[in-house]
Amino acid sequence: MLELVFSALITIVPDYLFRHYKQGKRWGHEITLFNVWYELRWGLTACAILAVTLITVIFYFHPSTKNVSAAFRTVTILSDRGGRVAEVFVSNNGRVTAGDAIFRLDTTRQEAAAETARRRIVEIEAALGLTGTEVASATARVGATEADLAQASSDLERRLEVAERNNTVVSEQELERLTTAVSVAESRSLEALAALDGAKVRQITLLPAQLETARAILKEAENEISKSTVFAEVDGTVTQFLLKPGDIVNPILRPAGILVPNVTGQGRFIAAFSQISANVLKPGMLVEITCASKPLTIIPMIVDELQGAIAAGQFRPGDILLDQQDRARPGTVTVFLAPIFPEHLESIPLGSACVGVAYTSRAKDIDAGEITGLSSFIARVVDGMGIANAIVLRAQAILLPVKTLVFN
Q1: Which CA distances in Å does 297 have to 137, 287, 289, 294, 394?
Q2: Coil, strand or helix: which one is 318?
Q3: β-pair type (75-77, 257-261)
Q4: Angle 386-402/41-61 helices, nearest 10 degrees?
Q5: Going by DSSP bridges, is the β-strand pair 83-88/101-105 parallel, antiparallel, or unpaired?
Q6: Phi, psi of 396, rounded to the nearest 5 degrees
Q7: How large is the average pLDDT for residues 315-327?
Q8: Which residues pair with 237 in a beta bridge?
Q9: What is the pLDDT of residue 164?
């Protein structure tokens, strides 16, 4: 409407004034609705062309959007394992700080496993104490068998010496008996040595390894018990949290709730502009927004960052070949906005829906001499056209409460 009025002021109105005051034609007589097109054809045509041109220039260099929101991050409240809820420490919409317990899962099975591991540790430690006695007993048995072997060997040697001097004194049966006694003593000595080595291996290697295994099982059970309590990692507000003791929680199928951090996302707005404005939007560009949650207020922002990719072009490998025509929506340019005056955002809830207008300004380029001559004049004129969108935005801010509360 503003562009049409401006176009009429420099086309139709001068044409009508010329015909009325210069040529003496009167409205309703020489100038009627039947001949208005013929009389004002040049003015009407110029007005239409100029209005379309102004609208195109204004909306290209000063793009507007209805998709501005105060985006924020949420944290899903999940447990490391599934289980039944045993105790709940916070209520829905309750505030928590980092380290506060939120809920605890039932740990009956894990506590039983931990108790079993503790008893196993006690058992192995007792066995370690007993192996000392076993090693001492095996050592004594080795000494006894070695003494028996030495005695049997000595008896055999003496009888062999006697038999060499007089073979009639020692019988063959006696020599065979002494030889058998030596063999039995050697076997018993080897058996005692093997028993001693086994006792030492049990004391030094086997039981310590079993003890470490039992301690590892105990640590694993204690870790499972500690992970059964879910703690808040950041300060925030717990929402959509309706857990009760006895409910089943699953980290994949059934999360416990959502935690909204206090600081994440505050002060940053996300705006979606048409792709045709991709070459106009630049970091540092001035943007004005007005939000439904804070009517009658214009909030100045600047473009803090532009997303380098348009979301509509993303794809994920799957079992179906991608067909580009299935993507009906062309996608928008995502822009991150930062406030010039952060205090203006204090009363705006996170997630608020807003509308905004971005303004192109090439004053720095003109002052730096990068744009000169006629180009600088045209640039200033185009930059000044942003006042039309500024007026429209302020009209929207004024009419928004009336439109929402009355006409909706």
Answers
A1: 94, 14, 8, 6, 8
A2: coil
A3: antiparallel
A4: 80
A5: antiparallel
A6: -65, -40
A7: 78
A8: 95, 260
A9: 66
How many residues are present in the chain? 408
Q: How far apart are CA 363 and CA 376, in angstroms?
A: 9
Nearest to 356 by CA among 402, 292, 287: 287
Find out whether 268 and 68 touch, Cβ atoms under 8 Å.
Answer: no
Which is more confidently placed, 316 or 306?
306
- CA dist 293 and 290 (Å) reads 9
Helix axes 2-10, 41-61, angle to 10 degrees: 140
Identity at 2, one-letter amino acid code: L
Strands 95-96 and 236-239: antiparallel
pLDDT digits (tens, 9 = 90+) for 9-52: 667 777 777 777 777 777 767 677 666 666 677 777 887 888 88
Q: Which residues pair with 105 in a beta bridge?
A: 85
Sign of CA dihedral 356, 62, 4, 330: negative
pLDDT band at 368 (very low <50, low <70, confident <90, very high): confident
Element (H, E) at 105: strand 101-105
